[in-house]
Amino acid sequence: MDDIDMKLLDLLQDNSRISITELSKLVNLSRPSISARIKKMEDEGIIENFTVITNPEKIGREHIFFIEASEIKTEAEEFEKILKEIEAITEIYMVAGKNNYILKGSTKDMDSMDDLLQKLMQYSRIETSMVIKTKMRRQNVKPML
User: Fold this and answer.
1) Each residue's pLDDT expressed in tens, for the chain with a length of 145 residues
2) Helix-strand-coil split of the chain, %, nearest 5
3) Residues 89, 103: contact at Cβ < 8 Å?
4) Would 138 be classed as within a structural domain?
5) Are 70 and 125 in contact (CB under 8 A)?
6) Domain match, 31 and 84 both
7) For residues 122 and 38, what is the distance between their CA atoms, to the nearest angstrom?
């Protein structure tokens, strides 16, 4: 990746709907060159997806939480499969340290969260932290080259 690719990545992270024409103007390259660079970043896995980022609270998922899971009672692959099938869980991280996984998720109410916790307790020891208020949500990840 060169400086132009990093600038394109930065612009696309700010607004994935920006047009090729606008990108072309902002980085002073032809539209075909811009398209080729974006395609290359997609092919190399640098750009995984163009997506919409929603605010969980605005779409009825008012209870945001983190769950630390340890002492897994099943094979890791089976546990991960179970987690991926639970709609309320939005992020799964395998971690080193006292826990095996850190999960992020959101539910519409406390009853839904209780149902989720009861299910997870069948497979692991869990500790839960409720989000009181999101102070920052960084979407742009700058390349470190």
Assistant:
1) 899 999 999 899 888 899 999 999 999 999 999 999 999 999 999 999 888 888 888 888 889 999 999 999 999 999 999 999 999 999 999 999 999 999 999 999 999 999 999 999 999 999 999 999 988 887 777 777 6
2) 40, 20, 40
3) yes
4) no
5) yes
6) no
7) 44
